[in-house]
Amino acid sequence: MSSRPNPFQWIAYTYGAKLPDTQRDWVANDLMGTMATPRHLFRTQMSFLPIYLVLFFAFPGAIWIRALMVLLAALLALIFSTSYMNQNRVRRLQKHGLGNSPMTYRQQAEARDIKVQYEQIYGARRAGADGEGRTVAEG
Questions:
Q1: Which of 53, 54, 36, 20 is nearest to 104 (CA)?
Q2: Which terminus of the chain has fewer CB atoms gathered within 10 Å of its CB, N or C?
Q3: What is the largest CA-CA distance in the chain?
Q4: How far is residue 42's CA from residue 99's CA, in Å, rounded to a whole number?
Q5: How far apart are CA 139 and CA 124, in angstroms?
Q6: Is 126 exposed, middle or buried (CB count within 10 Å of its CB: 0-12, 13-18, 19+)?
Q7: Using an 8 Å Cβ cutoff, are 27 and 47 in contact?
Q8: Contacts of the segment 135-138: beta carbons below 8 A, 24+ positions apart
Q9: A Pfam family matched by this chain, by name (predicted)?
Q10: Angle 31-36-42 (CA atoms, 0-180°, nearest 5)?
Q11: CA angle 120-126-130, nearest 5°?
């Protein structure tokens, strides 16, 4: 696997920058590997960190009120980042030239297994129906 990005590259990547082609394997693993969903959630929360800091330090009031304000912002960011996870994944994959599928490696493997099972069950039926030469109107 290719090397990890340095901290500056990772911060730029968090905000949507393209990493060098030498790190394409790392990007693929980051977006489609076993921990892709937790990584996505962590990455998006890190991109909101400056906003959280401004919310906490720029507003007057008791610490618990400011902390709850940041918590509300974090929960909203989490909801939206979860909602748009697949679109974000596809865009990052396209940017790095890695395809258009929003599925992780595990989801792709499950889809292949389901397709094989489907073909085993219904493939013979389809082949048998095609061999009879009848149409639905003739049947």
A1: 36
A2: C
A3: 80
A4: 23
A5: 19
A6: exposed
A7: no
A8: none
A9: DUF5313
A10: 105
A11: 150
* Unique residue bearing structure tokens 């959280």: 52
- How far is Cα 29 from Cα 91, in angstroms, rounded to an integer? 15
Angle at 118 between CA 117 and CA 119, to 5 degrees: 90
Q: Which two tokens stand for residue 132?
A: 């009879």
Q: 82-136 pLDDT, tens per residue?
A: 999 999 999 999 999 888 888 888 888 888 999 888 888 887 777 766 655 455 5
Q: What is the pTM of this model?
A: 0.74
From 61, 59, 47, 38, select the one nearest 17 (Cα to Cα).
Answer: 47
Beta carbons of 18 and 26 less than 8 angstroms apart: no
| Residue linked to tokens 């400056």 | 50
pLDDT at 98: 87
